[in-house]
């Protein structure tokens, strides 16, 4: 607290320091001012405190940190006793001072190409050439949001597009832009959101990832080949591309990736790791739920304090409409910072994501109460933020040579301290008038012999509080007046106070005066050391933390079982058929033995299988579960560069539900929006594992092709009539053209690599093309084709096309007219994965018959059944049974259609799909014949680990009901002021179908629905 004897000095200091930089324009320059801020506690850097020192400022820089009284002659001394001086806070993720907008256009039809102007990229979401220092203009009104929270500089960029350009780091001072730039060529900004781009591509998350991947490869190619243009023998011409040139050497750049959720955070990390990039990720506030994954990637975070408002549980029963995940997040959001700190993950803080910027400090203080240390919080505002912003040698510390950006507080800002002023490049901007600050504090006043406590505080003005009454003070210097009720005096007397003389006078309405004596209370006890985090402060959560952190998430992953199932009916899906009253033993993830009356090895769990059935886990050849951001990249006729494996969603509860239906393996396919779609991903339904660990390692690569109505946009509406192809014969043409282009691409690469070293150094190398590389893998038999199909004419066309280009079709999927061409399918060696009894839901399905699977099977076609539906996948066992009803298929053959047959079509039959000694222990224990509608799974093993257990499921349901009630009770116990926060905007994924037409990102983000209405569209 500042004593009254220093008030005059403070007022002189205020006059000297707070000058208007635009007050005059003279030919002669003022001498560089030398200012000594004396007597404050200096927070030099996190963990480094000088209890009483002097900060010497020369111009806009810190000249020295002094510990004694050796202040240079001529320095203007400003007394700062009782105040804390911190380095000015830094926000590395803003859009401050950038008023630029990209041109917009009204569109009624899809935009497949954009205008090429000024060397821009071919895609409208790539703006890597933008250097936002060229567009920056200070905005004093906007700057106040940061300044009033103690921030003195920010890194800024236009937050629009996927490659957003190079940021600029600027001071928040009131000067011309030229004087404010700390780092003109700042960090590159990245996102998965294409923003305002009118171009249709990409419309999906996997498309955005493919565009990023291709752009980084293009940048490396471009910058490698630019140096060859001067060579006399250079062949070919390299287009000028400002965006690729702007990226330069990507490994020498620093990237800040906007990642709005946990899954995208991991995707961004994977991309940055793939291209050996350095950078930071924008946090989302839920990092506590995936802390180990985040730590393993090693990237620092920029953390918004976007704490959610308490869910509305005011009406009884409303809590059952809330997701358990949202209730859990509400409780743990404030503890996110502590979780990151404990894990050793560095982070900076940002005002981004907070609707009302005034909420920043109350939320940070809430995070401190939840366990975040003040030292880590300070680092997140200073040194860590400076490091991420690339200005660690300029700002973030109180150190000689650093810019004089300061935040001055009365008291501890991490508890209840008040921001007094900020210094912006050596010039002070007052937040609390210093003459008013000098009189704040606790007093007592004696009125007619009664001692009454008095509090003087500043909050949008100076306030006097006596007992339970408060009033604003008006005045200047140390003399103020107000009207307020006083104990022992009638009415509401006028009151004058002289805080310098510690005197006051109360004037009654009748003119009588009552002199009063003020006594200042000294509260300057040394209590500034940070207290240890108490147990109550650190953690009192009633909600659980699981992976995924949703309903039915796991608190721990299952271990490999040692199990002996005795006396069950074992469906081998092998030549042995069904074994009655048989045993099966699993260990170390494998099937150890199958037989009758087997001895139980020591340490193995026995399960009585009497009356029960054991089968191989169900394999689904065609699924679209567990995906983020769309299953179609339908914006081009060929999108073979996109990868379903990029967009796995391990938090999709469909994984758990399908697992409970006995499914252990599924191929996740691109949709059917284009003739050549994206690369598929085979997964095992390991509920509780992360996205990478869902992947079936070692499985053959595959890709989705498609025929029929969807790819020629038959049912897309009148807007979609300009993309080629619009006819079935055009589909063949597109595919043949892609195959020819891929062959030409391969020839060009081969020819270039065959050149001698000197010739390669002089010639432009072939441009990398991820789209053609994937098609070339098909021609080289390195990637299997699974093709969406319906009518016989197109099935025959593609058989001929494949044979012309020398590859085998792995499987025709849906293939509802397969019965018409079964002999041709068998002769080619193609598999067929169909539906049991779906028909007539669109024109090309009118000839579908329920005997299709049987007829193809009888003709020697390797036949399976698929779901193509998040819902039907849970009951594929019943779908298999339908062929027994429709055409007397045997039970064993029916069961093979959802186990070993699809495993063969996927190239994984040597490992899974049947029960055989030595195979992987992917198996299901059923309580009845699995082809019965009454059969239920009791347990499901994947790799010998019990990922589903019915009894455990019942226990989880009961535990989650109790947890939900405890969280609701916690919310109901809060005051209304404690329930405030941001609206929860956790994105709700649609349930993807094969033909979901979806725009995932940008200003037009929407789910346009499916191209036909049928349960589980195809």
What does this molecule look like?
24% of the residues lie in helices and 24% in strands. By secondary structure, the protein is an alpha/beta fold. The strands form 8 sheets. A 9-stranded antiparallel beta sheet has the order 22-21-20-19-27-26-25-24-23. Strands 1, 2, 3, 4, 5, 16, 17 and 18 form an 8-stranded mixed beta sheet that branches.
Beta-strand content estimate: 15-25%
Mean pLDDT: 90
**How large, in whole angstroms, is the Cα Rg?**
35 Å
Oligomeric status: single chain
Kindly state the percentage of residues in helix. Answer: 10-25%
Number of strands: 46
The largest β sheet comes out as:
9 strands, antiparallel
Overall geometry comes to globular
H/I helix tally: 25
User: Taking strands numbered 1, 2, ... along the chain, how are they ordered across the largest sheet?
Assistant: 22-21-20-19-27-26-25-24-23
Instruction: Please state the structural category.
Output: alpha/beta
Please report the distance between the alpha carbons of the first and last residues.
73 Å
Unreliable residue runs: 1-24, 525-538, 1003-1018
């Amino acid at each position: 607290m500042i004593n009254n004897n220093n008030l005059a000095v403070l007022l002189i200091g205020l006059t000297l320091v707070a000058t208007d930089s635009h007050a005059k324009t003279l030919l002669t320059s003022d001498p560089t001012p030398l200012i000594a801020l004396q007597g404050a506690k200096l927070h030099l850097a996190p963990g480094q405190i000088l209890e009483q020192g002097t900060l010497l400022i020369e111009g806009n820089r810190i000249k020295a940190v002094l510990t004694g009284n050796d202040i240079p002659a001529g320095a203007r001394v400003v007394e700062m006793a009782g105040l804390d001086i911190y380095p000015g806070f830094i926000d590395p993720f803003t859009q401050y001072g950038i008023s630029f907008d990209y041109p917009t256009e009204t569109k009624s039809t899809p935009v497949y190409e954009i205008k090429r102007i000024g060397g821009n990229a071919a895609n409208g979401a790539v703006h890597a050439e933008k250097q936002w220092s060229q567009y920056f203009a200070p905005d004093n009104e906007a700057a106040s949001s940061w300044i009033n929270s103690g921030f003195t500089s920010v890194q800024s960029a236009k937050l629009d597009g996927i490659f957003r350009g190079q940021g600029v780091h600027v001071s928040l001072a009131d000067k011309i832009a030229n004087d404010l730039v700390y780092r003109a060529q700042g960090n590159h900004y990245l996102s998965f959101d294409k923003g305002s781009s009118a171009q249709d591509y990409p419309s999906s998350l996997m498309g955005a990832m493919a565009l990023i991947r291709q752009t980084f490869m293009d940048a490396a190619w471009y910058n490698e080949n630019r140096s060859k243009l001067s060579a006399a023998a250079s062949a070919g011409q390299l287009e000028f591309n400002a965006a690729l040139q702007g990226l330069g050497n990507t490994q020498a750049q620093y990237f800040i990736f906007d990642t709005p959720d946990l899954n995208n955070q991991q995707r961004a990390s994977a991309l940055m790791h793939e291209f050996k990039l350095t950078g930071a990720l924008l946090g989302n506030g839920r990092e506590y739920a995936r802390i180990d994954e985040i730590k393993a990637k090693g990237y620092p975070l920029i953390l918004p304090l976007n704490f959610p408002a308490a869910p509305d549980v005011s009406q009884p029963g409303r809590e059952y409409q809330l997701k358990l995940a949202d209730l859990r997040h509400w409780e743990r959001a404030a503890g996110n910072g502590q979780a990151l700190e404990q894990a050793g993950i560095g982070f900076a803080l940002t005002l981004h994501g907070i609707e009302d910027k005034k909420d920043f400090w109350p939320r940070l203080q809430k995070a401190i109460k939840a366990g975040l240390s003040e030292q880590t919080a300070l680092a997140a505002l200073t040194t860590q933020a400076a490091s991420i912003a690339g200005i660690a040698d300029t700002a973030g510390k109180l150190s000689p040579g650093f810019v004089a950006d300061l935040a001055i507080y009365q008291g501890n800002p991490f508890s209840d301290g008040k921001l007094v002023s900020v210094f912006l490049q050596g010039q002070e901007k007052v937040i609390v008038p210093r003459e008013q600050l000098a009189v704040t504090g606790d007093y007592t006043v004696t009125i007619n012999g009664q001692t009454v406590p008095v509090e003087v505080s500043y909050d949008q003005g100076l306030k006097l509080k006596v007992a339970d009454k408060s009033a604003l003070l008006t005045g200047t210097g140390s003399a103020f007046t107000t009207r307020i009720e006083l104990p022992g005096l009638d009415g509401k007397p006028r009151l004058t106070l002289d805080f310098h003389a510690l005197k006051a006078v109360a004037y009654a309405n009748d003119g009588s005066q009552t002199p009063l004596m003020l006594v200042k209370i000294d509260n300057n006890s040394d209590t500034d050391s940070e207290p240890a985090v108490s147990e109550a402060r650190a953690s009192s959560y009633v909600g659980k933390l699981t992976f995924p952190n949703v309903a039915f998430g796991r608190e721990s992953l299952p271990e490999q079982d040692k199990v002996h199932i005795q006396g069950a009916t074992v469906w081998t899906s092998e030549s042995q058929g069904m074994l009655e009253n048989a045993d099966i033993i699993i260990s170390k993830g494998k099937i150890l033995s199958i037989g009758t009356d087997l001895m139980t090895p020591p340490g193995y769990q026995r399960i009585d299988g009497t009356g029960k059935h054991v089968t191989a886990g169900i394999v689904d050849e065609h699924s679209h579960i567990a995906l983020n951001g769309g299953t179609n990249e339908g914006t081009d006729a060929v999108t073979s560069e996109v990868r379903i494996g990029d967009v796995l969603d391990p938090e999709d509860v469909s994984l758990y539900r399908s697992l409970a239906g006995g499914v252990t393996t599924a191929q996740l396919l691109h949709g059917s929006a284009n003739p050549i779609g994206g690369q598929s991903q085979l997964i095992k339904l390991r509920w509780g594992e992360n996205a990478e660990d869902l992947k079936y390692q070692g499985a053959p690569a595959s890709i989705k092709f498609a025929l029929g109505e969807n790819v020629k946009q038959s049912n897309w509406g009148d807007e979609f009539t300009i993309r080629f192809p619009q006819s079935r014969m055009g589909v063949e043409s597109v595919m043949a053209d892609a195959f020819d282009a891929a062959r030409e691409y391969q020839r060009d690469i081969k020819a270039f690599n065959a050149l001698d070293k000197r010739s390669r150094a002089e010639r432009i190398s072939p441009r990398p093309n991820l789209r053609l590389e994937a098609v070339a893998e098909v021609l080289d038999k390195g990637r299997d084709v699974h093709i969406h199909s319906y009518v016989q004419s197109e099935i025959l066309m593609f058989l001929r096309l494949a044979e012309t280009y020398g590859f085998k079709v792995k499987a025709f999927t849906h293939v509802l007219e397969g019965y018409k061409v079964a002999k041709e399918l068998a002769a080619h060696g193609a598999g067929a994965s169909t539906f049991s009894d779906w028909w007539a839901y669109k024109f090309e399905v009118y000839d579908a018959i329920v005997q299709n699977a049987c007829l193809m099977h009888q003709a020697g076609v390797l036949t399976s059944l698929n779901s193509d539906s998040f819902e039907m996948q849970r009951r594929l066992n019943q779908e298999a049974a339908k062929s027994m009803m429709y055409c007397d298929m045997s039970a064993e053959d029916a069961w093979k259609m959802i186990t070993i047959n699809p495993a063969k079509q996927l190239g994984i039959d040597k490992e899974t799909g049947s029960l055989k000694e030595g195979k992987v222990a992917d198996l299901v224990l059923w309580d009845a014949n699995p082809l019965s509608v009454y059969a239920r799974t009791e347990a499901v093993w994947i790799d010998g680990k019990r990922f589903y257990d019915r009894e455990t499921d019942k226990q989880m349901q009961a535990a989650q009901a109790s947890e939900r009630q405890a969280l609701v009770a916690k919310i109901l116990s809060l005051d209304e002021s404690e329930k405030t926060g941001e609206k929860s905007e956790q994105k709700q994924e649609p349930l993807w179908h094969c033909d979901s037409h979806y725009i995932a990102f940008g200003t037009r983000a929407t789910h346009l629905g499916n191209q036909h209405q049928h349960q589980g569209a195809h």
